[in-house]
Amino acid sequence: MSEQSAPLGVDFAKDRAPAVEPVRGQGGQRAYFSAWEMHAYYGESYIVQGVSFDIREGEILALLGRNGAGKTSTLRAVARLESPQLTHGEIWLDHKPLHEMRAHEASRAGLALVPEDRRIIPGLTVEENLRLAQISAPHGWSFERIYESFPRLGERRWQEGVTLSGGEQQMLAIARALAQDIKLLLLDEPYEGLAPVIVQEIERILEDIKKLGITTVIVEQNAIAALHLADRAIILDMGQVVFDGTAQEVIDNEELRQQYLAL
């Protein structure tokens, strides 16, 4: 991956691009989510290099690319985590400028990130992890609805979260996000390290989420699984967008898959 020196003494509020209206989605509809010219660094390593994309409400977007393409870094920048540092660009969700927010503020604005490591809190049961997600209003799904959609969690509601299997922890991480009042769900490698039978169960849950019209971005090394779930796809290479189109276009284009996804 190419590297450039990070700007010294960056003041994001000062140096970001002038405010722009969120871009319009397909068919002239205003995009529900927009990222515009995002640039982000880990120290001096230039990772996210001018990434732009938009999502319509209720769409599922697959964010794809080889290892090291910048997928997780892009999700983290959108979620307003401190690392990588966003130095330029704008991020809008439902007309709110996330680029002016910190991570906890973006979360309150309706953004939920389910990270690859799941971040289950040690010492807390399944239900306590869920209750913590609802510590402040507005709330999302009720516990009854969560346990109906995730029956394994209902069976283990009083078990310490970190003692669950990997697949069950992934379910808990997704359920914890849904317990909040979310507008955009970011999923980073939801199938990573899971047995095929558990992957199928996670896929069922994500299909249910799709039917409910929850706007979602999914980063997944299992690109074919993500593409069958998604409406649209973005492919990153070296921190830049090299494809933006429908998921079916990627499925149908073997040359594109081989060049950027090794499929």
UniProtKB/TrEMBL annotation:
Domain ABC transporter: start-end pairs: 33-263
GO biological process, one term: L-amino acid transport
Gene3D superfamilies (alphabetical): P-loop containing nucleotide triphosphate hydrolases
Keywords associated with the record: Amino-acid transport, ATP-binding, Nucleotide-binding, Transport
Keyword Transmembrane in annotation: no
Keyword rRNA processing annotated: no
GO molecular function: ATP binding; ATP hydrolysis activity; branched-chain amino acid transmembrane transporter activity
The protein's name: Amino acid/amide ABC transporter ATP-binding protein 2 (HAAT family)
Organism for this UniProt entry: Dichotomicrobium thermohalophilum
